[in-house]
Design brief:
Shape: globular
Bound molecules: 1-O-pyrophosphono-5-O-phosphono-alpha-D-ribofuranose, uracil
Number of helices: 6
Strand content: 25-35%
Distance between the termini: 34 Å
Largest sheet: 8 strands, mixed
Radius of gyration: 17 Å
């Protein structure tokens, strides 16, 4: 699918398979999700713009690069929290915004219960983090909020995406880069991804 990068790295796929396994318990699930998030971040940030700079090594001047824009990470609560810490270890000076969204069980509509984003996102690289892209309702609601704050450079990092969710995001955001470890088959009649991972928030926090 255009604009969707499926990260096929063997370590990512190995961890994803262990996350899918229903026998994986919350403690192990949290560790694996953190690990996979770091691995995925390399690919998801590959196209970050850089500016040339020079530094002085102990021996001579050297040409190098620094990131052109500061980074804002935006996990969607709750499940996005499972990917946040390990990404922050890789980009420790990133700012963090939070979006709380909960899907209503029957309508599958995502309702906001928390919004806290840095103001004026236009000068930042924004990474929206949510393990599951199912109907796409949560992602589009979060992306709309991020766009309202002026963000221009936004990318979405998921762990598993359903074709339905990708289509929904694409309709509103045709050019948004999406990174995922897998595009699964479809949604079931309760809006869960098949085969998916089950309810990621519950599996992370043992609810
Ligand atoms: C899950 C998941 C996504 C959303 C995806 O969150 O973490 O945010 O569902 O579904 P969608 O694409 O159909 O909107 P949920 O609302 O279950 O909240 P939780 O993370 O607190 O469990
Ligand atoms: N949220 C989840 O946690 N899992 C799904 O399969 C869909 C939405």
């Amino acid at each position: 699918m255009k604009g969707v990068t499926v990260i096929a790295h063997p370590l990512v796929q190995h961890n994803l398979t262990r996350l899918r396994d229903k026998r994986t318990q919350p403690q192990e699930f949290r560790r694996l999700l953190g690990e996979i998030a770091s691995l995925m971040l390399y690919e998801a940030t590959r196209s970050f713009a850089t500016s040339p700079i020079s530094v002085q090594t102990p021996l001579a001047p050297a040409r190098g690069f620094r990131l052109k824009r500061e980074v804002v990470l935006v996990p969607v609560l709750r499940a996005g929290l499972g990917m946040l810490d390990s990404i922050l270890q890789l980009i420790p000076n990133a700012r963090v915004g939070f979006i709380g969204l909960k899907r209503e069980e029957t309508t599958l509509r995502a309702q906001f219960y928390h919004k806290s984003l840095p103001k004026n996102l236009s000068r930042f690289e924004v990474i929206l983090i949510d393990p599951m892209l199912a109907t796409g309702g949560s992602a589009v609601a979060a992306l709309d909020l991020i766009a309202e704050q002026g963000a221009k450079q936004v990318r979405l990092v998921n762990l598993v995406a359903a074709p339905e969710g990708i289509r929904r995001v694409r309709k509103s955001y045709p050019k948004l880069p999406i990174f995922t470890a897998a595009i699964d088959r479809r949604l079931n009649n309760k809006g869960y991804i098949l085969p998916g991972l089950g309810d990621v928030g519950d599996r992370l926090f043992g609810t």
